What we know:
6 helices; five-stranded parallel β-sheet
Amino acid sequence: MSRILIVDDEESILKALKRLLALTPCTAADKRYKLTVDTFSSPLEALEKARHTAYDLVLSDYRMPVMDGVQLLKRVREIQPNAVRMIFSGYADLNGLIAAINDAGISRFIAKPWNDDELVSALGQALALRELTLENQWLGDQARRANGTMSAQELELLRLEAEEPGITHVVWDADGSVLMDTAAHGPHAKS
Length: 191
């Protein structure tokens, strides 16, 4: 099961994409991906969800109020570096596209209006590449573990963080207690 996050400030776009992905098989390399799709019209709400839910792929509109797609994907990259990041837009903004590639590490730009088959194909290809990349990382980690350059604890922390983003990051209060809501506790919070 692959989990996808889609963010666009236009509800009609979100509904169309969710309907498309429910009806059209997402395939690549002879594999069919079963998708769970979460949609948000607010980048801030989407970012909050990404702090607690692991995503395989995040697709964001470029132009949105409050936070543009590059800013959103850049923050998603910090939280979930292994999530594929894609951006789409109806505007041909070369500087924005360059920023998306350089700052947010997007893997693909999709123009609006999109071609349904091309979009679904691009998602499938991105998910297949992600699987291959993660498998290579896992094999590399296993080799580092076997060579003694990575401990079993470090390997387990990487696995846990991949499954549940943020689980390995604990914020401590000055008295040694664990802070559950770090935003409410201000600058004295330590990590």
